[in-house]
Design goal:
The chain is mainly alpha-helical. It is 79% helix and 0% strand. The chain has one domain.
Length: 456
């Protein structure tokens, strides 16, 4: 840990061009700026660059091949843009271009396949969400027929997810927080605090987990799986194995909840809005949660209500805590843990060096998007802004998330996770149980009237 601290201090302001955090901000905000300029000038360039086969709903390979044949030039343009922006920035950060390029080509091709799977007409029936499928496929490849180690140069897990988090801010106007209302924010706060603190204190007090690992899996369960785990791992300087342990636990339980909550909601004949809120409190990945909410909404005859409740609860309410927990744990790690370990109280600047800068990018992008969209009424926002500005950015964000999930899988060896043992899983599972029960009580009994009124 002391070596990492010395390295950080030695880097100083060089981190402005040598760290992925800053490049994620440059790239994320840069994409957002181009998108806004194109939108204001009536250009469709950003929609072209955001192309993916995920929304096709194809039922035959002929349809899929027809899509690629018709849009081949757009995919080539998109690939070149991704390769240039990621290739130049990683070269500046010291990654060999000769290693990054072939690795990224593989990553892009696999990402296309993931989107195509998600665009299959029966994908939702089998819960084939592209990010989750990407992680599973990556794990299989890495542990059955692994790529050469040098290809890790293109599997930049942190860079892709940090860029995605900045783009998440671009699709997250602050006005959405106010639209969620005090009930959704209050319920999200209760869930986030309870789940995180439960996993953390159960993990450290009863299972003897390292506090950094406990913090990563605690926030991973409390907020938004991969992106939250990444943010906290950066804040507290957790080990690579800690991050991947958290991601593995998140994905396993996300898959379980896709099946459990819709089934339990159907058994209890819950209102779609109530069920959507329950999904929002107890799912551990946005893609998985959306699939679960959509599945039950269709069964209950009101998909919009279920998705609206899920969005308010999870995508707005809980995901907002990424930045809050990042700041809190950065302070704790810097002012308490390292003081206890090294016997020296760190300087105030060390807190700045430690803080995950991409979280700043998230809020900056959100503020900028808010200022651009504030003048639109809700109908105009949904009719004009959303399809021409927000949704293209959502697509580009999804590209970065799939790059990340694939990279996690492709760089994870199961043997590396054995050292963590069963204890992290035990602590996380206890948090899951409390989360699911508390989420049910809040969604059904405490705030049930609020959620039931959605979609009427």
């Amino acid at each position: 840990m002391s070596n990492e601290k010395e390295k950080s201090n030695a880097m100083g302001w060089k981190e402005l061009y040598l760290k992925e955090d800053w490049w994620a901000i440059y790239l994320g905000v840069g994409i957002m700026f181009v998108a806004i300029m194109a939108f204001l000038n009536g250009s469709t360039i950003i929609k072209s660059l955001a192309i993916n086969p995920g929304g096709l709903k194809w039922s035959s390979f002929g349809q899929l091949m027809g899509h690629f044949s018709q849009n081949l030039s757009l995919y080539i343009l998109q690939f070149v843009v991704w390769l240039v922006v990621f290739g130049i920035s990683t070269r500046i950060m010291g990654i060999k271009t000769s290693e990054f390029v072939p690795s990224f080509i593989v990553l892009y091709v696999l990402a296309i396949i993931m989107f195509a799977i998600g665009g299959w007409a029966n994908a939702s029936k089998y819960n084939l969400e592209p990010p989750l499928v990407a992680l599973i496929l990556g794990l299989i490849i890495a542990n059955v027929v692994p790529f050469p180690k040098w290809m890790d140069s293109g599997f930049r897990v942190e860079y892709y997810i940090k860029t995605g988090i900045v783009l998440l801010g671009a699709t997250f106007p602050i006005t959405l927080v106010t639209s969620a209302g005090p009930i959704a924010i209050l319920q999200a706060t209760i869930i986030s605090l309870t789940t995180c603190l439960t996993i953390y204190f159960v993990g450290t007090r009863f299972f003897g987990l390292d506090k950094r690992l406990a913090s990563v899996i605690g926030v991973g369960g409390a907020v938004c799986g991969v992106s939250a785990s990444m943010a906290i791992a950066s804040s507290v300087r957790a080990k690579k194995e800690d991050l991947y342990t958290s991601v593995t636990l998140v994905v396993v339980w996300a898959l379980v909840m896709i099946l459990f909550i819709p089934f339990a909601s159907k058994l209890l004949n819950l209102n779609p809005g109530v069920a959507g809120a329950w999904v929002g409190t107890s799912e551990f990945a946005d893609a998985a949660g959306f699939a679960a909410a959509s599945a039950y909404g269709k069964m209950a005859g009101n998909e919009n209500a279920a998705i609206q409740a899920f969005t308010l609860m999870k995508v707005i309410g809980r995901d907002l805590w990424i930045g809050i927990w990042s700041f809190i744990f950065a302070m704790i790690a810097c002012l308490k843990w390292e003081k206890e370990e090294c016997g020296v109280r760190p300087s105030a600047m060390e807190i700045w060096w430690r803080f995950p800068k991409f979280v700043i990018g998230f809020f900056l992008a959100s503020i900028l998007m808010t200022s651009i969209t504030a003048g639109y009424s809700t109908p105009d926002f949904n009719k004009i802004v959303k399809p021409n500005l927000i949704l293209p950015l959502v697509s580009l964000r999804t590209w970065t998330f799939i790059f990340c999930f694939l990279s996690i899988g492709l760089t994870t060896r199961f043997k590396e996770l054995k050292a963590a043992g069963w204890k992290p899983a035990g602590a996380f599972t206890i948090g899951v149980v409390i989360n699911v029960i508390l989420g049910f009580v809040l969604s059904v009994f405490v705030f049930g009237d609020y959620w039931s009124a959605l979609g009427k």
